[in-house]
Amino acid sequence: MRKRIAGCLVVLSLGALVAGGCAKKDLVKQEPAPAVTAPAPEVTKPAQEARPEAPKAPVTEQTPVREPVVAQEPVRETPKAAAGDLQGQLQKIYFNFDSSDLSEDSRNVLTRNAEYLSKQPSVKIRIEGNCDERGSDDYNMALGERRAKAAKDYLVNLGISSERISTISYGEEKPVDAGHDEAAWSKNRRDEFVVVK
């Protein structure tokens, strides 16, 4: 029995040596193969590196693809969006007591308003002339109309089409400040610019 065990051990030892020798030969064979095809593994390695990044790249590529789509949607809604933005940009102008003459500050504001309007040629506005509480109702309605017309004429001279501008007078009917002193009255003597389309 000892002879059989010793024989098995010898066979196992030889098998291990043969297997170990074969493994070394396989490793030697595998090393030259990559060395011969060294450019291929280098190309493969960047490709493998690109593969983990590849999921990132499509996400990045999808995001810019979506951004132009989102950017195009507001372009389709430009008249509405532009009207809201423009309404926020259009500034009021103010007048001296019993006057429809444009001050230098008012002309500067109208110039900025004209710049905004020229960027949105489809937008129409209404100029609302207002007065303080002093004077008769009829007088203030006429004064408010003169104030609105003065602003319209100035905008037309700056190149804004008169067809895009309407005017209305509210006289003393829409005060901003209900006070009864010069501080309140100076706020009420104004033209407001309202986007209507």
From TrEMBL:
Keywords: Cell outer membrane, Lipoprotein, Membrane, Palmitate, Signal. It comes from the Bacteria. Residues 1-19 form the signal peptide. Belongs to the Pal lipoprotein family. This is Peptidoglycan-associated lipoprotein. The keyword Zinc does not apply. Residues 31-47 have a biased composition (Low complexity). It is a lipid-anchor. Residues 82-197 form the OmpA-like domain. The lineage of its organism: Bacteria, Pseudomonadati, Thermodesulfobacteriota, Desulfuromonadia, Geobacterales. NCBIfam families: Pal_lipo (TIGR02802). Residues 31-75 are annotated as: Disordered. It is found in: Cell outer membrane.
